[in-house]
Amino acid sequence: MRLTDIERAMLAGKLGEPRRWAIEQQMRVGRFFDAKDFVEVTQVHLMADTESLGDSGVRFLEELAAESEAERRVRVPTVTDPRGIDFAAYKRLKQTERMADLERRAIAAFRAMGVMMTDTCINYQTIMPPVRGEHLAFGDTGSTIYVNSVLGARSNFEGGPAALAAALTGRAPRYGYHLPEKRRGTAAFALKTRPQSLSDWGAVGGIIGRKLQSYWQVPVIEGIEEAPTSDELKHFGAALASFGTVALFHMVGVTPEAPDRRRAFGRRAPPRAKPITAADIRAFYGSYGAKGDKLDVVVFSAPQLSLVEMQSLAGLVSGRRIHSGTTLLAATSPEIKAACDRMGFTAAIEGAGGIVASGVCFYQMHAREIGEANGWRRLMSNSAKLVNIIGGYGYEPVLATMERCVDSAVAGKVL
Amino acid sequence: MKPRILHAHPGIGPKVTGVALVAADYFSARYDLDRIKGVFSRPAHKLYGQPYVGRVLVLLGAKGGVATSWMLREMSERGLAPLALLLNTANPIMAQGAAFANLAFLDRFKGDVTAAIRTGETVTVDPVAGTVTLEG
């Protein structure tokens, strides 16, 4: 890879051990993907929940944080993805002191490096939405696909150590979705029905994701007659990225790099569009269904809920009581949680017997251990992303609309 | 029998020799594994219930989220990692995780690597050369 003077200085260790480690890590990845050089980034979004980090990852962070302040501080604004513990809720959820201790150590290390603990995967809705053409190092699949597709910014999936390295160097290897020629459509889908709910949009993302299964494919979606909302695109993108490891989509007439079909594909001849029908959506729900079963836990998370989703949930549970055998959990960002406290949404949800967790996301909360500790197996959610992930943690997931999830939580069984 | 050599793009990590575990399916450490017991735990995965520790995992590609980038190193330090990972097509997360964990990792084979190697075969993975040698 071609290096600038400052990059050579980092590699030689002249700017400290953290930056030497960081650029060496980035060069190994850059060479793997044939990157010719680096591109400077303006924001980093860092995924580092303690379940993923483990003891070894936290020790690694502590070693970096023990270096001198000049050598350990991040070079660009860096924010965090959801954490594994909400210190106000972890005892109610039967998370352990060991988990909480690991979390405290990770937070202390990040703070020493100058990382801002935003603890959110919806930073593009709540912290600082990127702009078209801005180069980033985003480390959550849902946040990456949203900023690439909906906002026209440029990032690859930068997983935890890669995002941390980008924060320390202020750059990322220039390959993949930093390059305009890689951002053109490669597959086409025609939506033949208008999704009616957030879970419908997640289902459509899941259906397309199942058909792709490669990071390098860029689906173009046609047939959208009315612009979806930010939350609808959030659920669509999160599911598409989860089921298909996809980092970029175009929606003709909606997203900025697809004002029309021709420009979505660039010089490529557009392929024939595969239809997505109402029957496909029903079949997708059918693959995560279990009517009549006792319901252990209802989760609204993945991605964290926006203020608008929290308002919807508060309205649905208001004046009702969650069944004593069922836990209802909603996860949002600290900023949105504060707004919900102020506006009475938290009181409405918790007054009905639910739990509002802040700065966490369910599958990043040591999901296997809390499931075993609480006796949770049958899980219901309106998040297609969550039902895709959570089966591997020993849960039996059901996908449904927010309304049906709430009705089921009140009944204590899957309706 | 003469050894067979498969060619890929140059990869990441050390040269290793081990026994292959193969499936025409995808991979994510978070979605698919019980990283405490060292087995595939996702019921829908073709390797469900199979132990993966110390094996050369041969799969179609990457899937899902970003957690694998941290998890491979943690799994290595606890002695619960695969020996190597071979994919037809990587995503950045697998490469970032392999680089962080110093795990042998290759992709972009000429042809479908899951069809070229069978479970139980002994293979030598050479990331610098970008080759996998199947013992005769």
Describe the 3D structure:
The complex is a heterodimer of chains A (415) and B (136). Chain A has 415 residues and is of the alpha/beta class. Chain A has three domains: 175 residues, 2-Layer Sandwich (Aconitase, domain 3), CATH 3.30.499.10; 102 residues, no CATH class; 123 residues, 2-Layer Sandwich (Aconitase, domain 3). In chain A, the strands form four sheets. A five-stranded parallel β-sheet of chain A has the order 12-11-10-13-14, sandwiched between helices. In chain A, strands 8-7-6-9 form a four-stranded parallel β-sheet. A three-stranded parallel β-sheet of chain A has the order 3-2-4. In chain A, helix 9 runs parallel beside helix 10 and helix 9 packs across helix 12. Chain A starts with a helix and ends with a helix. Chain B is α/β, with parallel strands linked by helices and 136 residues long. Chain B has a single domain, classed as Glucose Oxidase, domain 1, CATH 3.50.30.10. Helix content of chain B is 21%, strand content 31%. Chain B contains four helices and ten strands; from the N terminus they run βββαβββαβαβαββ. In chain B, strands 1, 2, 3, 6, 7, 8, 9 and 10 form an eight-stranded mixed β-sheet that branches. In chain B, strands 4-5 form a two-stranded antiparallel sheet. In chain B, a hairpin with a 4-residue loop joins strand 4 and strand 5. In chain B, helix 2 runs parallel beside helix 3. The radius of gyration of chain B is 13 Å and the shape is globular. Classes of the chains: A alpha/beta (415), B alpha/beta (136).
